[in-house]
Amino acid sequence: MNPAQPFPRRAQSRILGKGEVQARRDADMTVVPGLATEPSMVRPSATHGALWVAGLLLVTLACLASLDVVPALAGGAAPAQAHGTACSPCASPQSRYPESAPSPSQPLAQPLGLAQCIALALRNNAGPAAAREGLAIAEAQHRQALSAYWPQLTAASTQTRLDRDPVFVYPEDSFNYTVDMGGGPMTMRTTVPERRIRLADRDIGEFRADLGLLLYDGGRREARVREAVAGHDAAAGEARLTSLQLVHDVTTRYHGVVLARALRDLGRETVQRLEATRDVAEHFYKGGSQRVRKTDWLRAQVGVLGVRSLLAELDSNVELAESALANTLGLPWDGQVRVADTELPATPDPGDLDAAVADAYRLNLDLVRFDAGVRAAEARLDDATGEYLPVVSLFGTLSTVTNAYDGGLVAEGERTHGAAGLTVELPLFEGFRTQARVEEMRARLRQLAHQRVLLREGVALRVKDAVLQERRAARQATIGAETVAAATESRTLTERAYREGLVDTRELLETQIYEAMVRAARLRALYEAQAAAAARNLVAGTEILEHLREVGYGARALP
């Protein structure tokens, strides 16, 4: 029934057969089986019974409201909109409430399964793209470290204009010399006046090329290359971890959409049942029946209004869950996506705890990144130790001068010069800086060794927590299935008993509300089992991505 239409105030006063019930459901009727006949006997009801039913209703509302499956829309997180129905154990009859109004943007043409949503997120979400840029940065840093093995060649050109031509001032000089001209030696004194010799024109151009080749630096060059390689490994682990985190988010939010829609459908079905009960009670109460009292009608009316209020929250939860999934898939804020699954899958097998922990030790990307950090710290220690050793390098220089003057220092044949040599540099004293740096690096390595122990224990605890959560959820889902079957049978029998006048309205309302509670609890257990499995896969490392590579989803987006 459209919510804009008034709810019926009357119900048929005869028992419906199974075929008629289905026909009425298909025709969008509101009568449920076994609620349309006047009871021949009604047990006495008391005020405390009404209060007990109201309390039970509040508990039901709290239980359903607590099933909030919408993750927080934190920065960097990712959301979308999807459509689904209830799980088969909680499948509801045709709803009288219309679907939520579509957003202005056009939805995707075909419903998407979980693997397709993951592939779409890996292609569209900005997180993996940013992580791949970090990997590109690490690769560039590695190439920078390798450049130390190549000769270093530089060229420079300088053009200078002086305020005057450079000159060489030859000072005045006097000297004596003796000349023997046959008549005996004769001493003469000669004075050379000061002279100013032009060396070059004031416009001087110089072109210079320098070549250097490092021969030995105490192992520091190799250490920096190893540090860059470790940084690349850490960046690769970060990129894969980002993709795994995205897979985890898509998985939980995909199942969150399915759960939110199943709870909404369950709420609508519960409202239908309570409305039918209220309408029957109202029909007999206003028809003058002495076996159905006004308190019965009021009790049913309270239940209807309470669940209607909760239904508004459930509708909002569906919209939020779909928005969260759309954002995770990298769609616009008003984008829509339809999910293909209409019911939550069965609880996965958590497997052996020891095997899960061993796999996590082997594949966990946090441990991979940490080990890369340890290798980088070891390389930095070698770099610091290399400062004790000498640095040996070859050098060569070639320079030429351009000048308008042909003489002095820039005469033809004197303008080009070259030089080559060997440099040995040995640090003698730096105020104990190198020693302090070496001690710092060794302390960091010892610190990392202790932190790795803590990280391994943390990984094991995370795996254990996820496995225990899976086992608990699996047990709850198994017990919930039995409970749902029992609650459904109890409600059916209570409706028949109500039809025969063997139970009162309060007991009928209790069975209807309790059935909704246990069905909601089982849905929650199924969702929590999937969330725990996703958390275990996130800790374990690479299984999901390897599976996606096999099926070909998002291969271009995978690091």
UniProtKB/TrEMBL annotation:
InterPro entries named among the record's database cross-references: OMP_efflux, TolC-like
Keyword Membrane recorded: yes
Pfam families (alphabetical): OEP (PF02321)
Keyword Nucleotide-binding annotated: no
Alphabetical list of SUPFAM superfamilies matching this protein: Outer membrane efflux proteins (OEP) (SSF56954)
Chain intervals for the UniProt region annotation (Disordered): 84-108
Keywords from the named record: Cell outer membrane, Membrane, Transmembrane, Transmembrane beta strand, Transport
Primary localization: membrane
Domain of life of the organism encoding this protein: Bacteria
Subcellular location: Cell outer membrane
Family (UniProt): Belongs to the outer membrane factor (OMF) (TC 1.B.17) family.
PANTHER family: OUTER MEMBRANE PROTEIN TOLC
The name this protein goes by in its record: TolC family protein
